[in-house]
Specification:
Elements (H helix, E strand, L loop, with lengths): L4 H6 L4 E2 L4 H7 L10 H5 L1 H14 L3 E3 L7 H5 L7 H16 L4 E6 L14 H17 L4 E7 L2 H14 L5 E5 L2 E3 L2 E3 L6 H11 L3 E5 L4 H12 L6 E5 L5 E3 L2 E3 L4 H5 L2 H6 L2 E6 L5 H17 L1
Parallel strand pairs: 1-12, 2-3, 3-4, 4-5, 5-8, 8-9, 9-12
Antiparallel strand pairs: 6-7, 10-11
The structure holds zinc ion (ZN).
The site of zinc ion (ZN) has 4 residues, from loops.
């Protein structure tokens, strides 16, 4: 089961990732505005339990609770001095939860600051932060790294560079967030898909794709745009639709069955790793698993 990711992709496997970890942690007492990563130090056993739940729902690949674990992002919560420990524990807790039944992917999200010259973040400092984070995730036992929800290609490249420096051989997955415009798909920083694909591959990413920002229909379009520019395996993690406000709470309209119906189309367009982003639950992952198993059996 715990084969190397590259080996599994090479032999044509389609890997199921997991759903939104934040939603699960909120059900366990995470307050709005609180850093989800603070749980890594206070309640690692909960993270192991979340990882085990994903594996039992059918995930082949489970993310660590370290999306906001770069030192710059943790600084917002006064936790930057604990960045190493927070990321290491995110990985050790997930490794314990999956117990060899799935791959553990170290999650790396944006640093939360805008890079020079548009903002104030120094690229060297941002890269060094990603390096520290990647190193700690790998020390904790992560099998691969996923750089996700990136809107600035320049920041994504710094993250890939930091991750490569931490381990020249580790598989690196990069998923960016795109918006639909009359001129095509762009990140909010104005990066188009062909430029993202070429630049990320050149900087050493193994798998490319998109997460967040779109429901299933939009993500299929994004996958098609990636497939038109590269034959690398793609990774897609859609939101459960676009959020609708219900009494001040974000509600996501796509049911597990709604989302699962898109799985064969995503796979037909080069998606080899798929999971869910905002609003997706264990039930979504279970529904994806059923579709993937049916597809494989009828192949
Ligand atoms: Zn999301």
């Amino acid at each position: 089961m715990n084969m190397d990711l590259r080996e599994r992709l090479d032999r044509g496997d389609i890997l199921l990732s997991d759903g939104a970890i934040g939603t699960l942690l909120q059900q366990h007492g995470l307050e709005p505005g609180q850093a989800p990563e603070a749980f890594n130090l206070s309640r690692p056993e909960l993270l192991s339990q979340v990882a085990a739940t994903s594996v039992e729902a059918g995930s082949d690949l489970v993310h660590t609770n370290s999306f906001g674990g770069s030192p710059l992002k943790l600084a917002v919560h006064g936790l930057e001095d604990q960045a190493g420990e927070i990321n290491r524990t995110a990985a050790t807790a997930a490794v314990r939860g999956v117990a060899g039944r799935a791959l553990v992917s170290g999650s790396i999200g944006p640093c939360g600051k805008v890079l020079l010259p548009y903002g104030e973040a120094d690229p060297d400092e941002v890269r060094a932060g990603f390096l520290l984070q990647a190193r700690a995730l790998l020390e904790g036992g992560a099998d691969l790294l996923t750089i996700e929800t990136m809107s600035d290609l320049a920041e994504a490249v710094l993250a890939v560079q930091g991750a490569r420096r931490a381990d020249p051989g580790v598989p690196i997955l990069v998923t960016m967030t795109f918006e639909s415009t009359p001129g095509g798909w762009f990140t909010i920083m104005g990066n188009d898909i062909p430029t993202c694909a070429a630049t990320l591959l050149e900087s050493g990413a193994d798998v490319l794709g998109s997460n967040c920002g779109q429901g299933s229909a939009g993500m299929l379009e994004v996958a098609r745009a990636f497939a038109a520019t590269t034959d690398r395996p793609l990774m897609i993690q859609a939101n459960a639709g676009l959020p609708e406000l219900d009494e001040g709470r974000a509600c996501y309209p796509e049911s597990p069955a709604d989302m699962a119906a898109w799985v064969p189309k995503l796979v037909a367009n080069g998606v080899r790793i798929l999971g869910g982003c905002c609003g997706t639950t264990t039930q979504h992952i279970r529904a994806f698993r059923r579709v993937l198993d049916q597809n494989r059996d009828s192949a």
